[in-house]
Amino acid sequence: MSVLDAVVDYDDAIARYDPVMGLEVHVELNTETKMFCGCATGFGAEPNSQVCPVCLGLPGALPVVNAAAVKSAIRIGLALNCSIAPWCRFARKNYFYPDMTKNFQTSQYDEPIAFDGYLDVEIPTANGDGTEIFRVEIERAHMEEDSGKSLHVGGSTGRIQGAEYSLVDYNRAGVPLIEIVTRPVRGAGERAPEVAKAYVAALRDLLKALGVSDVRMEQGSVRCDANVSLMPRGEDELGTRTETKNVNSLRSIERAIRYEISRHAAVLDSGAAIQQETRHWHEDTGVTTSGRPKSDADDYRYFPEPDLVPVAPSSEYVEQLRGTLPEPPDQRRKRLQKDWGYTDLEMRDVLNAGATELIEQTVADGASPAAARKWWTGEISRRANAEGRAIDDSGVTPAHIAELSGLVASGRLNDAMARQVLDGVLAGEGTPTQVADARGLALAQDDGALEAAVDKVIAANEAVAAKVREGKLNAAGALIGGVMKEMRGQADAARARELILARLT
Amino acid sequence: MSSPSSPSSPHDIVRRGAAELGAAIADGSLSSVEVTQAHLDRIAEVDDAVHAFLHVDAEGALAAARAADEARAAGESRSPLAGVPIAVKDIVATKGLPTTAGSRILQGWIPPYDATITTRLRAAGLPILGKTNMDEFAMGSSTEHSAYGPTHNPWDLDRIPGGSGGGSSAAVAAFEAPLAIGTDTGGSIRQPAAVTGTVGTKPTYGGVSRYGLIALASSLDQAGPCTRSVLDAALLHEIIGGHDEMDSTSIDAPVPGVVEAARRGDVSGLRIGVVDEISGEGFQSGVRARFEESLKLLEARGAEIVHVACPSFVKGLAAYYLILPSEASSNLAKFDAMRYGLRVGPQGVDSPSAEQVMAATRDAGFGEEVKRRIILGTYALSAGYYDAYYGQAQKVRTLIARDFAAAFEQADVLVTPTAPTTAFKLGEKLEDPMAMYLNDVATIPANLAGVPGMSIPNGLAEDGLPSGFQILAPATRDDRLYEVGAALEAALLEQWGAPILDQAPALPVREVTR
Ligand SMILES: [Zn+2]
Fold it and tell me: HAMAP family given for it (chain A) (predicted)?
């Protein structure tokens, strides 16, 4: 067990220190084949079923660059407003790592394919009533290969220490990655963790729109390393940084950075120095623990990869790829907000929930923008959060929601019934209509029963009825509740209100 | 021919060249099985003394020979060398056949895949006799650094056969194989050819696929033919050369007309440039004398001899001994005892860590020369030293390429003696790495610049041992090597009246019953 580090209150930390962040995001590309060989890249295949002499690093095997990965890298670079190198090389990063077949990683070092860009991210204004743009500068985006995966068997911790033996799966070895590295992000102040989260969310949306990655953070196809350092307020010299590795959800990025800021502040307050090291994030306990110290041993002995010819995309090719870029996410957001008639606040909820595409599809399937928003950012988002699932992995489709909201709009279901129908859909009982039919959920459609219930409730609640007669229309709510109860929920609340007001006013 | 035997006796068969054997197999006067068996017998007779082979695959070779004979019977003609057996340097991956690169660390490793060269040899119908000895991971100039013991020079069994491909050249010189594959990182095809009296070609970098060659220094390594004649080399070059999409550095262009050039052998009007920097001082007097005579023979055949300056060549050796270890240190990192090859547990440790196993294995599995170069390369690439060493060496490389470019403005080919001396005695330079490294001084510039080179035997020096004549051509103009090589070879043959190898002493022959 790790000893928990001391932390200071976040607001206190921010009052005395300026946080500076550096974010390194690894994106697994969704190319059909690996970075340097023809092996498939599918997720979840039988261990070591997608390997060959090249990605196993067998003696004599040679890499050949995957042109589709280069294409994706260039498109990502362009979408991040980067310059694209007319000529660049791969380099060897030499270090020992049990999951790495060659004991060097083929990566890009001083010659990245894309460099000097930026990504504008939208964050709430300080007073929370709107949004503002924070520009995150991109230093570089470079290509590299993923390593394999170890499984340590027999121990209690799943770590190599204490394990009886280790298994290595090289299916992922050689899968193409793009590493996107920011320049130091400064000036975000107390909102640094929020900016980091918004940046990764914006990056994720962008990558999704580009179609270059599956961007499934929970499967590790997007992984974030977060560097954090603190500068005492009023000073301008960067502090010693720590690097928290492989943080793999938006929420964790925010929490991990927040934690590190508090921890750094505690260390600095005590007069001690921050150790430059890697840290591990623990989702369950919400803390980071010390990993490997950065040291002279981190001499990777980079040199240009002699087995690969340089990558030299022509300017015509780059311009041709520029033409394939999707509408920039911020423009698209503005267009959709206008089309859908959402307020800034509503749009922000949509973005935070990561529901833009889902809503777009739901509207295309026939729902009103208002209903689509309400369902995705409300009920479904809540349930997905509670189950720790991604919203687009919740088991309901835009078509389901469009159908469900159609049933509400037509007056067949009220909201409470619709939620019950959603339960059924999630339980795999079928489409919303099928669930409603099977469960016998439908509002009473003839006014006769409703009118009888209204009369009964008014008679039983003379005092309330009197208030309504006096013009206190809000009081009608209690009567509507009574009617609903009388009808055992099978009533259209709006119609009940109409009838009550017609009787009393 | 000086053969005392009947026309088709095994003795006669092994002394015939590959082109001739290919023609005999094609016209049915010999079968591939007969030819292959004759060479297997010869290996059984003399290889105890020569030790050219690390592994002989009699069964596989005969099966391939039968397949070649069947293909011929069915009217298929797969190549002019179909059915002619070949020996392959043990650095080339051969599916199902042990491949060790002369190292203990790969003892018993059987690759699950074929190198592109191997694939092409098989497709062309050449039976693979076995794998030839070499300096460990091709580091050395004498084949004394093989973990499996040295190869002996067929001209004098107390002498080195050159390195690192001494096994391939010795196999060809000892008539154990009509053809062999070598690899040349700093001269490992040409230098052994020179000291064994055979022909060795290093094609243009990228001219023959590196896929499946266990890498020594990726930016320098080049595979090529080891043969007894220029035409045989050209025929083999044509089979193994050409674009390979598995090797990103492979040249995407057809192989130049090397066979045609070898058949033509015409140097009239050709300008032949003598590189004075690597032809004079430090070269054995007999080697220099043979070189001068060869120039005269070429001149007599209509070539124009010019002298060119290549001032940066003298720095080549130093640059080479930084670039090679640097790349090698990275290429050899994969040998970590985890996935294949040797695994040694550390002494006196109960449950050793992965690092301890790795260290013990590397200590036991790598030889002294390999360790020396790994340490050198690791140092040269390390932060703070990169610019001073690797970076400077790369600059020298650029200067050498410029020297070549300027020289090829003045001459169609460049020539030098291949090696400064004839074969030295086994053990003579083992304790002096620098003296050993100097053997490659004339061959290294071609690797640094990626240009093609060839060594052909041009006579015997004052000590009665063969010397080599090196020809260098501009990148992708491998055909010029064959043009000049064939012309000189013809002139020399005319003078000698018989191949130079006929002057080699007979090897002790072990009685073999099969
Ligand atoms: Zn593969």
Answer: GatB (MF_00121)
